[in-house]
Design goal:
It is a single chain. By secondary structure, the chain is α+β, with helices and mostly antiparallel strands. It has 3 domains: 48-144, PAS domain (Beta-Lactamase), CATH 3.30.450; 145-217, Orthogonal Bundle (Helix Hairpins); 219-381, Histidine kinase-like ATPase, C-terminal domain (Heat Shock Protein 90), CATH 3.30.565.10. Helices cover 47% and strands 21% of the residues. The protein contains 12 helices and 14 strands. Helix 6 packs parallel to helix 11. The radius of gyration is 38 Å and the shape is elongated.
Length: 398
Amino acid sequence: MEVEIIAGLAGLAGLAIGLATGLAVRVSERAQRAPAPAVTQGALPPGVASVLSVLRSSAVVLDGEDVVLRASSAARAFGIVSGDRLVVDELLAMARLSRRDGEIREAEIQVGPGRPRRGAEGRWFAVRVAPLGSHGLVLVLAEDLTEMRRVEAIRRDFVANVSHELKTPVGALSLLAETVEGAADDPEAVRRFAGRMQYESVRLTNLVQDLMTLSRIQGDEPLPELRPVALDAIIDEAIDRTQIKAAAKNIEVTGCGGPGERVRGDEELLITALRNLIDNAVAYSPENTRVVVTTRRCDDTRVEINVTDQGIGIPGGDLERIFERFYRVDPARSRQTGGTGLGLAIVKHVTTKHGGDVTVWSKEGSGSTFTLRLPLLEPAGRSAQADASTASPAPPPS
């Protein structure tokens, strides 16, 4: 009897286990046949937002109705997106084509203030447009090429200008050498042409020297071995190096200002920058005038050097460009004075390398004032504390 009861219970247990197993298999099969949740219109696929957040390019995602689902702050700042719309017609057309045929498209476009491809102003972008999934979403990536294009244009202009500037004295020297050879029987002509050859060779030497100086200071590398430099010594040396040119036009060059100011820098580069400013002042000043170099403290951390002349002045439209390489307000006059067109560019780069800045005030017919501002070696308060700490102690009262 007990055996029959046990057998019956075992049969019921086996039946229950079989039913449970069959139910589990049926549920599993249904789960496998169930379709994956669809990406609804107006929502990004999982993970896309995280990927877009780490991209360096400006990113925009459009839905099937060309509504912006997501746009980076850069895309809005550059004027690619306004509100929930892509406002650049070329990008919108590319997005619609990519949605239609599923192809990835690339192009370079210019986006101006409110109008693409209109006028010289604006920013250039390398654009890549691709469909994103199968629900009408389109991804637009735009990489800003403006700075790269500007650097390339500067490089092309620099090479062209250097070629032109070198060609002039080299061609003149070649022509003068032929002339001297043909005038060997005329001592007076030989002396005259030899003097002209010397002038052109000096001009060529100055140009090469300025190019070497500019190549040294225009990179991102810091200047090596910066040392304490006394401004008085810099001003005296720069004035001394310009005395011959100034004396030829009877121009008085004087220096004055607060003594004892010091900065940390490269002494030779600072002398070169200041000499270029004084040379420029002398070259564009009439005879029997003055050029004055002064120094004064702007505050406890900075000092400024001013170079003031009584020259012809600079037109207002040229003030923003005079520190560009090879830019000349009056090209004919600059070549007559032997200028290379690099002097003010060197001034700007030297000042920037020393943590300062350079500005200019000018009025046509009234002269110009160039101002170099440089950080002091030590602030005034700190210097005074250092002097007090190193002073000899007072003798005890007797």
